[in-house]
Amino acid sequence: MRRIDGHLDRLHLHSNVEAGEAGAFSVQDAQKPAVSSRIAHLQSLIKSLSTTATPKHPLIPTTRISRILNAANISSTCSTCQSLEVLDINVVEEEEGPGTSYEHELEWLLISKATAQAYGQVLSTILDQTLPLGEDIFYWDDILSSYRYAGLYSIQTSPLRLWDWSKDIYHDVVERGGIASGWQQFYKLVRDVAREKSLANLQKHVISPLARVRTEARRNQNALKRLRLMNANALGVLLGEGLSKENTQDEAIRTAASDFGISQYKHKWKNTIAKNIALMEAILQNAMDSELQVDKFDDAIASSTHEDPLYENRSAEVESGTASLKLAAVSSRLQNLLTSRLAEYTAKSRASARSYAKPSRLVRLWLPLSIGLVFSTTILQILTRRRAEILTWIRELGATSIDFWVNWVVDPIKKVIGTIRHDESSEVSIMSKRSLEGDRDSLERMVVAFAKDDADNGTLSSEQLESIRLKVHEGDLTPVLKAYERDMQHPFFGAIRGRLIQALLIQVQKTKVDVEIAMGGIDSLLKSQELVFGFVSLTPGLLVCVGVARWVNNFFGNRKGNQKGKQQTQLVRMLR
After folding, report:
1. Are both 421 and 554 inside the same structural domain?
2. Rounded-to-integer distance, Cα 351 and Cα 362, Å
3. In this structure, is residue 372 part of a structural domain?
4. 3-state secondary structure of 323
5. In a domain, 247, yes or no
6. Residues 114, 46: contact at Cβ < 8 Å?
7. Is 373 inside a domain boundary?
8. Which of 169, 235, 412, 493 could form an SS bridge with 537, CB 3.0 to 4.6 Å?
9. Cα(181)–Cα(167) distance, integer angstroms
10. What is the Cα–Cα distance from 46 to 52, expressed in whole angstroms?
């Protein structure tokens, strides 16, 4: 639709910029207030028919298209249209002649855009009437493929068959005057008519009920397939012979202008617009014919358009630069297509599809609804007696759902966000943050004090003590180990003096510091993996949520989506 609309705009633009072409807006026209107002009005209507007017919905409703055509008041003031008294009069457009007026060209552009919109609406309407048929065809496929479904369908439709049988008996009794003869005679006639119908339907009783149901399902399915194939043929003819087959490239305009002039190329498109209006009318008319065979559809279209004045061949007129199209007649046919033909096709197509479609929802659900209605009192009593338990179950279910959402979805997400933002409260830790620093400082002070008290070291300067402290910070306990080796030679005297015990306690403190350093490494590793742990803790909640969402989607929408995909695939195959 956008390509066709853009092609019409480019064609009109080329005709305006082409020097010496007819249909250009002149200075004399601009000086006439009535003509200028008429042209501005037509330009406003043309813009409202463009696909760019509503980018999200390029198709305009048929009622609005019809109102725009009525508001345009085609051929009321156009001098070119008034010169065409009848459809068969030709107006020759020569290069040196006066040619057509600019108002006439704008009216043709308006009709062209309205025809393009009608073309899109016809395609959309036929497609909308075709796709739902696939769902009913799949329903009858289920009936034919399973005896269980066939039996269920027989039970679902049994009230309808009983009603039809009772109605036939009632009409036969009324025709025989049973009601006027008294109740006793009426009951006797009812028994006689029922017996006659039973004898008349004796051959049907030979066939099992499931076989009769399958025969009915096959008949309805074949009718729906015929309707779908008929609509597919209509779409195929529209796509193959309609506006969508025309070349919509600027190169085509330039080639046509160089070969035989842009004016004659415009006549070709005017002829194409008129032919498409007649083609759409013929397609809608024949698609509604229930007695038409599918293989005769193309012949019926050809027969309908053979003597149509809008569809007759004008190739010679196009080459000679003549036109025999009366714009008012084209506009009238287009309005008739929008207001009558399209509505009639939609109504008849829906009626035909409804007569062969699957039963209504009420027919399919009458049995469970009846059972529920019969046992409604018992169910209500059970619910009343167990009201407290039911309320408890509902509360527990709600509390469980909330706890699951909070503990397995919300809290893990908060922890992950806190880890990404380096939130200190979210850090994983297996020891206190300041314990290593305190124990290391204590070890340094213990070693420095031990070195000061060691007589073998003599008096130590502040630089030597700072050097010892730095070595201890790096894990070097050389002064303590030397004293420990020396006291181990005389352990008894070392123990009495306390130097040996002091050295042992310093080494214990050193071991404690080493253990805390190792724990700090493990702590750092845990902190580096905290984001992974957060995603791992979030995974079960997300998996459950995704599983529930997929189950709901499969339960409610997957079957419908698969059926729609199958419908579109089958329709594309038929179009090909």
Report:
1. yes
2. 19
3. no
4. strand
5. yes
6. no
7. no
8. 412
9. 19
10. 11
CA distance 98 to 197: 81
For the record, the structure tokens of 495 come out as 């123990």
What is the H or E stretch that residue 425 is in?
Answer: none
Q: What is the pLDDT along the chain (576 residues), one digit of tens a residue?
A: 888 888 787 877 766 555 444 455 555 555 567 777 888 888 888 888 887 766 677 888 889 989 988 888 876 555 555 555 444 444 433 333 344 677 778 888 889 899 999 999 999 999 999 988 888 999 999 898 888 888 888 888 888 888 877 777 777 766 766 555 566 666 777 677 667 666 555 555 556 778 888 888 999 999 999 999 999 999 988 888 888 766 545 455 555 545 445 566 667 778 888 889 999 999 999 888 878 888 888 888 888 888 788 876 554 444 444 445 678 888 889 999 999 999 999 999 999 889 898 888 888 888 888 888 888 888 888 888 888 888 899 999 889 889 888 887 788 778 777 766 655 554 545 555 566 777 778 888 888 887 777 756 567 777 877 888 788 777 777 777 777 777 777 776 666 766 777 777 878 888 887 887 777 777 666 666 666 766 777 777 778 778 877 877 776 655 555 555 666 666 666 665
Are 506 and 393 part of one and the same domain? no
Residues 326 and 474 in one domain: no
Question: Range of 402's domain?
Answer: 386-426+532-573
pTM across the whole model? 0.64
The number of distinct structural domains making up the chain is: 4
